[in-house]
Amino acid sequence: MPTCCSNASVCSEQSCQRRPVGSGRRTELSKVSRMPIIDMHTHTISKRVEPLIAGQYDPMDNPYRRDMSPESRATDAEQGKLLPRLMLDVAARREVMQRMGVDFQVIAPAPAQQHYWAAEELQVALSRVQNEDVAALVAEDPGHFAGMGTLPMRFPARAIEEAVHAVETLGLRGFQIDTRVENLELSNAAFDPLYARLAKLRVPLFVHPLGFSHGQRLGEFFMVNSVGQPIEEAIAISHFILGGVLDRHPELDLVIAHGGGFYPFYAGRMDHAWKVRPEVKRLAAEAPSSYLKRLWFDTCVFRTDLTEALVAMVGTERLMLGSDFPFDMGDDDPVGLVNRARLSEADREKITFGNASRLFKISKVGA
Fold first, then answer.
1. pLDDT at 17 exceeding the cut of 50
2. What counts of helices (H) and strands (E) characterise the chain?
3. Which has the closest alpha carbon to 211: 76, 26, 347, 358?
């Protein structure tokens, strides 16, 4: 079956490259030039994943790829030829970063390589090789890269073990997870020990969807990504808030990709439901919108007015520049997006440097 690159499971993460992110004009940096620029939302792959799952996995079993129209799958196949180089070649990444005006990237695995379907030992092995490979990529240029890993989420006790190893031995700064774990929502009490340990380790969870859990209606027009993923993010936020996770784990740092999806822009309806429906407020001590400033978000919303609306809802203390490099659904001018928004210089510096450096403990940028 044709795929968008040599790794079929990678291709199903998103529609792949039409062109390298950042291949357009260089952004005007005058308003954000005092501090280095950190992009906290970028991806890589592990070449060691495919041999581990060979003969056990059909990419069409992945709902994202299954629900995608044939046209979108064909587009993936055509667009993905550049992905492995952009993901694995440090020099190639640095070249694109320079065009984008970015000085430092936080690198996470491609969500399609998480494979939560896998049995326990295989899932643990898949997490370990990805975490080792992220750490190895970072080690090639630690002045310009930091890493996030992945976890065997279906087995929370093993996820705790892997988290400790990845942080204390490999030096990773956080972990990326999906918006759901097979049939388990992220508010499930089974994850509470993991959340407590991550809070103790002082590393964040980066919540990034892979398509939509019920995407049968979203195959056409690439809606499985453009519509489905923001819905997934809204569902995940709802579970974190209404399921009581943020009240049970106030020290847990949760980062929601793509500006939090639809949730921040429609929080009024969530608040109204909390006011009038007893089942909505059963586990949440406060109105849902009051929790938004306890979450972290990236800026991958593409429009200046939406960036400003996001700031109005969540503030600037936990908003970070993020591009979704190197996928075609990423923002190839994330610095320009922040630059064009009506923000103070101090707020721009928080979004482009200060917040990410604080969350991911980035103390030095450059050689």
1. no
2. 17, 10
3. 76
- The whole-angstrom separation of Cα 85 and Cα 131 is 19
CB atoms within 10 A of CB 293: 12
The pLDDT of residue 7: 40
User: Would you say 220 and 192 are in contact if contact means Cβ atoms under 8 Å apart?
Assistant: no
Alpha-carbon distance 161 to 153, whole Å?
A: 11
Residues 95-152 have pLDDT tens digits of 999 999 999 999 999 999 999 999 999 999 999 999 999 999 999 999 999 999 999 9
If one counts every other C-beta atom within 10 angstroms of the C-beta of residue 190, the result is 13
Dihedral angle over CA of 289, 317, 349, 166, nearest 10? -110
Q: How far apart are CA 119 and CA 121, in angstroms?
A: 6
* CA distance to 28, 173, 202, 300, 344, per residue, from 33 (Å): 9, 25, 29, 20, 13
CA-based R_g, the chain, Å: 19
* Alpha helix segments (H runs only) across the chain: 8-11, 49-53, 63-67, 70-79, 83-88, 90-100, 120-139, 156-168, 192-201, 223-226, 228-242, 245-248, 267-276, 304-314, 334-340, 345-349, 355-359
Backbone angles phi, psi at 147, to 5 degrees: -125, 145
DSSP-derived letter for residue 192 is H
Phi, psi of 320 (to 5 degrees): -130, 145
Q: What is the pTM for the complete model shown?
A: 0.90
Whether pLDDT at 9 is above 80: no
Tokens matching residue 211: 């398509």
**Amino acid (one-letter) located at 91:** A
What does the alpha-carbon distance between residue 118 and residue 133 come to, in Å, rounded to a whole number? 19
For 221, the token pair is 């027009």
For helices 156-168 and 192-201, give the axis angle rounded to 10 degrees.
10
The domains of the chain, with CATH numbers, are 8-359 (3.20.20.140)
CA 28 to the chain's CA centroid:
26
